[in-house]
Write a structure and sequence with these properties.
This protein has about 425 residues and is α+β, with helices and mostly antiparallel strands. The chain is about 65% helix and about 15% strand.
Amino acid sequence: MKKQILSLALVSTLSLGSLLSPLSVNQASAESLSDLKAQKEKLQNERSGVSKQIEQKSNKIGELQGEQGQVEAEIRNLDMTVEDTLNKIDSKNAEIKATDEEVKALKAEIVVLEDRIAKRNELLKDRARSLQLSGGTVSYMDVLLGAQSFGDFIDRVSAVTTIVQADKDIIEQHQLDKQELETKQQQVESKLALLKRMKQDLVGLKERLNAKIREKNKLMSQLKHEEEELHKENLKLEEQNEILAAQASAIQKAIKLAQEREAALAAERARQAELARQRAAQSKKKSSGGSTQTVAEQSAPPVSNGMFMWPANGRLTSGIGARWGSFHAGIDIANKASGVPIVAAADGVVIRSYYSSSYGNAIFIAHSINGQVYTTVYAHMSSRHVGNGSVVSKGQQIGVMGNTGQSFGQHLHFELHKGQWNASKSNAVNPVSYFN
């Protein structure tokens, strides 16, 4: 058996050596470096664009906050004006109440005046009838000529004079009372009408101010909503910027690895030979009826010969394409077992290992295969075993399957991008086509 394994390893080593001739290696390395540098430049341009968008949205947020400050100041001024108007309305209500009391008092005085005028009218009517019956002024002459003595004459003159003056006073007072009555009535009616008009104007002003306040509050609500939306967009852009920055760093590291690849070619041959030996051993054990695992879902998938290997054992529950009204940029591999390992689908450099509100525990890995840059994404893991910038090998465990982030049941969401990852997922390809 050892001889068979040794022969297989030797054949694999010779085959690898024939494939990796100096000319083909140098040519592939040069093409890979050129492609990696182009990818790096493209990423830098994308980062510059995202940073510009973040700056523009931040400026817009500042403008919205400035507008909110102006609206708040206007609302404060309107509130103060409304408060002043309400105070004036209260003052006018008090004046109207006092005027109403004054009107009641004047009405009482008017009743007295009208009674007094009515009594004088009766008195004057009686006096006029008396004068008419007695012949008018002649009766006064008779009174004077009927004096028995000079003293009696003087008394009669005084009495007549008093009566005439009394009549004159009654008439004058009667006219004054009438004039006062008319004046008071006009004054009270004018004052009451003026106060009511002023109150009506103030009530109208209050309604207009309240309408303006409602408009300003609506505008303030809209401005705050716009600001919240811009903050959300900025958070997404900042997350994209962080991924792009990490991606650029990973590609730079991949460039360095590509430059060192020729020096490490001997080690790579040995590693490939060892992998071939392991595959042969696994194949031998399977053919002899042996089994290396009791529950396939609880162990890592075997390393395959293709460009990429399955990143986890489980059932394919969803493919790439349209789903729930949007684009599903990867595949879903579900497994209910506990501790299901997630492995790197190919050799590469960890772009970013972090927690995302949508991806949950997620890892992004950059790969350079045959001069082409690829990016793989592993999402919703329960835990992550590698950090930012780590160099990983194909089949190396990088985490454990989980249900974190925007996920419905334990599974691995796996994406493969031909080129670098971007927010629009425009480089996403079907991973199944790349598995052996």
